[in-house]
Amino acid sequence: MSILEYNGGAVVAMVGKDCVGIASDLRFGIQAQTISGTQPKIYKIHDKCLIGLAGLATDNQTVFEKIRFRTNIYRLKEEREIRPKTLSNVLSMMLYEKRFGPYFVEPVIMGLDGPDEKPFISAMDLIGAPLLAEDFVLAGSSASEALYGVCESLYRPNLEADELFEVLGQCILSAVDRDAISGWGGVVHIMTKEGITSRYLKGRQD
Amino acid sequence: MARRYDSRTTIFSPEGRLYQVEYAMEAISHAGAALGVLSTEGIILAAEKKTLSKLLEPSISSEKMYMIDDHIGCAVAGITADANILINYARQSAQRYLYTYQEPIPVEYLVQQVCDLKQGYTQYGGLRPFGVSFLYAGWDEQYGYQLYQSDPSGNYGGWKASAIGQNHQSAQSILRSEWKAEFKVYDALKLAIKVMSKTMDSTTLNAEKLDISLLTRDAKSGRVAFVEVNAKLLADAFKEVQDALEQEKEKENK
């Protein structure tokens, strides 16, 4: 049993046309036992940046709290919000600092980057190796194989916000159904220049 | 005679004084004035901007007003470079508390953290004290709106209204006679403008020299914010104060 599969969970982010989306499952469990079906894995950094954390739940919480510390100080000093791309680099550094005693997290970052609000997604492994993709990124050890398959099939470029929601919703729900330790519904956040729309999905409650 | 004891901050004089601390306070009394007024719905902080030159690049940030965290803001009087160090420390302190307790830092606790740092510079190290006084305005769940003042010695106090920097004695006495517990934000704003106009250098009061911020909590959302006072509100308050002052002058002339 890998430590990254202790709590389960899955997160996926996708790029659309002038929009980005991120989705996660809602299960919080300890190995085989499910504690809660209302625990999303996505945190808001600011209006133009969301971060999803899959992996060991306790480390997810700690890494988020550290990120919040850093981004709060950043906002006060620079008098602006941190860009998703910059946050990705900060997180990469933070995780590598713990190279020989890492946080067991698999982060996924999404947002609208820069003054042009260009859609941005990135993911990294537990020691901070970044992955910048143009289409989709995902995290979640146990659900990842199924997620890769379904995302590869359903994804196409330049999806509008509504279509992106459908694609993300279907991807997360069908992938977590293939994984015993992820699921219990899902949440999808779609971010456009106008704002963030969040929708909760009811899935198989097992 | 006293000069022998000036060179070490960590030494008392024979009369029991810490000269370096007193000299720091002297430095602050030459700096641009700042004052704070507590009201039932928020706290007004007003500051006089001294560095006004056409050559100066306009910057978003103020040299007098700083946000420490979402729920705490402060006004500065004294050496700006020293203030920056302390502000940075205060910000880190607030985030450390948030990281440990998952709650916003209580206002008085934050003030104590900064003051403990300032006090250290009056007792250890042989370094000079920070030449800064602060007015902290904040809201927390336990005690609601609070206004604190700290000085280079590391002492602090909670106030209903207070002034620091140039002419703070006269500002303080006007505040003492005119502050009322029933004040709402607009009343506090008018009092702040009135006191600033009486204690500032220039005979004419203009809005560019003043930096006025408000710390208030939105009752519906529960969010606390430290923001510059809305321009229209400021203009209205200015006009009312100016009219009132003119009326006073006319009465005196009669």
Task: Give an account of the 3D structure.
The complex is a heterodimer of chains A (206) and B (254). Chain A has 206 residues and is α+β, with helices and mostly antiparallel strands. Helix content of chain A is 31%, strand content 33%. Chain A has four helices and twelve strands, in the order E-E-E-E-E-E-H-H-E-E-E-E-H-H-E-E. The radius of gyration of chain A is 16 Å and the shape is globular. Chain B is of the alpha+beta class. Chain B contains six helices and ten strands; from the N terminus they run H-E-E-E-E-H-H-E-E-E-E-H-H-E-E-H. Chain B has a five-stranded antiparallel sheet with strand order 8-1-2-9-10. A five-stranded antiparallel sheet of chain B has the order 3-4-5-6-7. In chain B, a hairpin with a 5-residue loop joins strand 6 and strand 7 (156-158). The longest helix of chain B is centred in the last third of the chain and has 23 residues, at 231-253. Chain B starts with 18 loop residues before the first helix and ends with a helix. The mean pLDDT of chain B is 91. At the A-B interface, helix 1 of A face strand 3 and helix 2 of B.
Radius of gyration of chain A: 16 Å
The neighbouring-strand order within the major sheet of chain A is 10-1-2-11-12
Mean pLDDT metric of chain B:
91
Strand content of chain A: 25-35%
Cα distance spanning the termini of chain B: 52 Å
Entry keywords:
heterodimer; A: 206 residues; alpha+beta; 5-stranded antiparallel β-sheet; 4 helices; 33% strand; globular; B: 254 residues
What is the fold's blueprint, element by element?
The complex is a heterodimer of chains A (206) and B (254).
Chain A: E1 11-15, E2 19-25, E3 28-30, E4 33-36, E5 42-46, E6 49-55, H1 57-78, H2 84-97, E7 105-113, E8 118-124, E9 130-132, E10 136-139, H3 144-154, H4 161-177, E11 186-192, E12 195-201
Helix pairs in contact in A: 3-4
Chain B: H1 19-28, E1 34-39, E2 42-48, E3 65-69, E4 72-78, H2 80-101, H3 107-123, E5 132-140, E6 144-150, E7 156-158, E8 161-164, H4 168-178, H5 185-199, E9 210-217, E10 224-228, H6 231-253
Antiparallel strand pairs in B: 1-2, 1-8, 2-9, 3-4, 4-5, 5-6, 6-7, 9-10
Helix pairs in contact in B: 2-3, 4-5, 5-6
